[in-house]
């Protein structure tokens, strides 16, 4: 048998095995045998790339080659939907449509999956492109990643040209499993949609394959108009026959339930049949079922069934006139993106921040929201002028969650500048993040000093970001070490820096000299070393700065990688950071100033606390009178043996709830987590409070 015949034989056999497994759940051969055949086919295709089938089963495996995502123009309209927030608004849509048409219509109702809109383009029955929605006219070609999804057919049983719209999503259980497996909390996704969006844009399709994305398809557009089915129900039936996955939770509305049932039966589809008058009960039913679904939905989509009516109704520049989306809950906040400001952090990280129309959210007016990085902007396909949904993550940080409506100005996806907005040094890419590499960039220096002095770190009162910027611009503070050597009397002429303010500042600096080594270590601003990481270093033998520096000199990442949860990558980054001559100069200056750089020399004798929270897992939400910032409460928990986490899960045992707690409290109530008030917490730790001179509550 020659190579062509063998490739043809293996391709057909493996496609049959895949179809049986993914569509019917039947495994015809052991996994080991399937892998052997697949490896053999892949080897033959590498030797004879010209003989590879366009729908080869090996494309499900993905590649380690880096993908780019070129922009592609859509050949079909890919628009958003008009919104409704009440059953009355949906019924009004029904009535308006019927009145406009002058006759009876029917409507399909489908779940609005909270995922990533995708268009699959097939030519002669073979998948040639998978394109994100983009701005509705132009999207990104993410074909290699979508090809790894078993639920997406690589070829169809008919040689047709068709575009299929669908929603790519990640199931709830898979999301929780993958998120909990991510040891770096900063890399955990906020919700299944965000993880799905990030996966669709993975640079390597072999990595995308590891995330079990799937798809529901809901619209088909035939290139040959004569081949287009007669109505929406028959489009769904045809898509199903072609091998596409359609949502089984379909509902259909007509003038009466009997007519609706007959039309479903004629199309050969399962589904629920309703009369128009049943709309309110149907929406209530779906809202109740929502939590029990294995995937996230954020509403329902109602569409006119008759295609000729759709064509007559047409489109606005924003949405089709023949469909409407019912949202279960009005967005927490909806705003228009006015612009994007680029910030430079203390580590040089470049962070885009959304400037939005002033929006009420959680009792405050939001004007700015985080966008994380360029990759996140790409995931959202975000452009200036878009209407976006805003949430408060962790009840605190405003963030842009998704795009509700694309702009009509023709703006395309925003791109970060090539140069640092502060010092104009060319920006460098490190993984999915962008950085300014200039250590002396003014924004970085100010950020390092502010971080070092912050309440969560060295806790130097009155030395906040505004004061730091004032002193830096005056040439009084040029680095962290200057905090302990500068002559602050020179600042007396600066705005707000009178004799009293300078006295408070100097007092705070003197008090900071007694902070323990673990606090000094975490305050240095090394990207990999926060408070918990610093504590783990100390507990695992790195209890002095000299031991850390000695390990860095040996250039052996395993010295740090052996610490549970660290790994070789973190070890390499710690070595790189402490090998920096600039950081070492700062450390020596702090040593000379008298800071504690050795845990054994800590002169602060902390009272041994009873481990009353041992074995407990605590989360915090809301604001507090005695714990400002909230990290002070976290320290009290950790001192007493408790573990603290950033989100409420089934493993959380206690939620410390202050004023204004929102989603975390609701989740805690749902899971039966014990909710503790501030007063109850103070009683549990045996603490009281008194007012300081500035009126702030202090613990005693």
Describe this structure in words.
The protein has 700 residues and is an alpha+beta fold. It is built from 24 helices and 25 strands. A six-stranded mixed sheet has the order 2-12-11-3-9-10. A five-stranded antiparallel sheet has the order 15-14-13-16-17. A hairpin with a 2-residue loop joins strand 4 (116-123) and strand 5 (126-132). It starts with a helix and ends with a strand.
Beta percentage is 15-25%
Enumerate the spans where pLDDT stays under 50 for 5 or more consecutive residues. Answer: 603-608, 689-700
> What is the distance, rounded to the nearest whole angstrom, between the alpha carbons of the first and last residues?
85 Å
- The CATH topology of the largest domain turns out to be D-amino Acid Aminotransferase, Chain A, domain 1
Index terms:
single chain, 700 residues, alpha+beta, Helix Hairpins, D-amino Acid Aminotransferase, Chain A, domain 1, OB fold (Dihydrolipoamide Acetyltransferase, E2P), 6 domains, five-stranded antiparallel sheet, 35% helix, globular
Summarize the structure.
With 700 residues, the chain is of the alpha+beta class.
């Amino acid at each position: 048998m020659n190579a062509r015949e063998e490739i043809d034989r293996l391709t057909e056999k493996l496609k049959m095995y895949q179809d049986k497994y993914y569509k019917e759940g039947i495994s015809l051969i052991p996994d080991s045998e399937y892998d052997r055949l697949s490896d053999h086919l892949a080897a033959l295709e590498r030797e004879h790339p010209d003989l590879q089938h366009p729908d080869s089963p090996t494309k499900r495996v993905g590649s380690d080659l880096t993908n780019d995502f070129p922009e592609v123009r859509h050949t079909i309209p890919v628009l958003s939907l008009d919104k409704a927030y009440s059953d009355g608004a949906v019924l009004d849509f029904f009535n308006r449509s019927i009145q406009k048409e002058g006759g009876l219509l029917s409507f399909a109702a489908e779940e609005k999956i909270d995922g990533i809109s995708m268009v699959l383009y097939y030519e002669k029955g073979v998948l040639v492109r998978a394109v994100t929605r983009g701005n509705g006219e132009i999207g990104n070609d993410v074909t290699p990643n979508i090809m790894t999804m078993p639920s997406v057919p690589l070829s169809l049983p008919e040689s047709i040209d068709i575009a299929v719209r669908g929603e790519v999503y990640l199931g709830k259980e898979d999301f929780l499993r993958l998120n909990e497996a991510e040891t770096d909390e900063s890399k955990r996704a906020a919700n299944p949609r965000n993880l799905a969006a990030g996966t669709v844009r993975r640079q390597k399709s072999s990595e995308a394959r590891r995330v079990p994305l799937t798809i529901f398809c809901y619209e088909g557009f035939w290139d040959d108009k004569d081949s287009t089915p007669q109505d929406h129900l028959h489009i769904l039936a045809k898509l199903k026959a072609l091998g596409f996955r359609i949502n089984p939770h379909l509902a259909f509305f007509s003038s009466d339930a009997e007519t609706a049932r007959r039309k479903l039966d004629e199309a050969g589809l399962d589904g629920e049949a309703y009369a128009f008058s049943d709309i309110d009960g149907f929406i209530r039913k779906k809202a109740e079922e929502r939590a029990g679904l294995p995937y996230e939905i954020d509403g329902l989509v109602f569409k006119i069934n008759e295609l000729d009516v759709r064509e007559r109704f047409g489109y606005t520049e924003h949405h089709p006139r023949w469909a409407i989306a019912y949202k279960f809950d009005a967005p927490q906040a909806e705003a228009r993106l006015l612009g994007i400001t680029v910030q430079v952090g203390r580590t040089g990280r470049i962070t885009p921040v959304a400037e939005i129309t002033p929006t009420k959210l959680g009792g405050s007016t939001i004007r700015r929201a985080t966008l994380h990085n360029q990759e996140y902007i790409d995931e959202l396909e975000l452009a200036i002028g878009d209407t976006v949904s805003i949430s408060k993550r962790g009840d605190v940080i405003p963030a842009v969650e998704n795009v509700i409506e694309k702009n009509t100005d023709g703006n395309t996806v925003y791109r970060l500048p090539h140069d640092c907005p502060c010092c104009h040094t060319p920006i460098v890419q490190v993984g999915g993040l962008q950085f300014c590499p200039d250590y002396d960039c003014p924004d970085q220096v100010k950020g390092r000093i502010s971080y070092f002095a912050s309440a969560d770190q060295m806790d130097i009162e009155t030395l906040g970001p505004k004061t730091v910027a004032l002193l830096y611009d005056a040439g009084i503070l040029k680095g962290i070490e200057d905090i302990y050597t500068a002559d602050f009397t020179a600042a007396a002429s600066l705005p707000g820096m009178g004799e009293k303010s300078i006295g408070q500042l100097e007092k705070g600096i003197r008090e900071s000299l007694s902070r323990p080594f673990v606090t000094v270590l975490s305050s240095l601003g090394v990207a990999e070393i926060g408070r918990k990481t610093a504590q783990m270093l100390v507990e695992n033998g790195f209890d002095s700065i000299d031991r850390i520096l000695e390990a860095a000199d040996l250039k052996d990442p395993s010295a740090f990688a052996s610490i549970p949860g660290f790994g070789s990558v973190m070890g390499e980054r710690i070595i790189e950071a402490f090998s920096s001559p600039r950081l070492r100069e700062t450390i020596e200056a702090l040593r000379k100033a008298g800071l504690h750089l050795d845990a054994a020399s800590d002169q602060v004798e902390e009272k041994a606390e009873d481990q009353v929270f041992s074995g407990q897992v605590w989360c915090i939400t809301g604001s507090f009178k005695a714990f400002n910032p909230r990290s002070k409460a976290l320290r009290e928990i950790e001192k007493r043996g408790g573990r603290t986490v950033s989100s409420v899960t089934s493993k959380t045992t206690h939620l410390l709830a202050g004023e204004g707690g929102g989603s975390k409290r609701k989740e805690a109530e749902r899971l039966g987590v014990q909710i503790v008030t501030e007063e109850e917490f103070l009683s549990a730790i045996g603490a009281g409070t008194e007012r300081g001179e500035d009126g702030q509550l202090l613990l005693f």
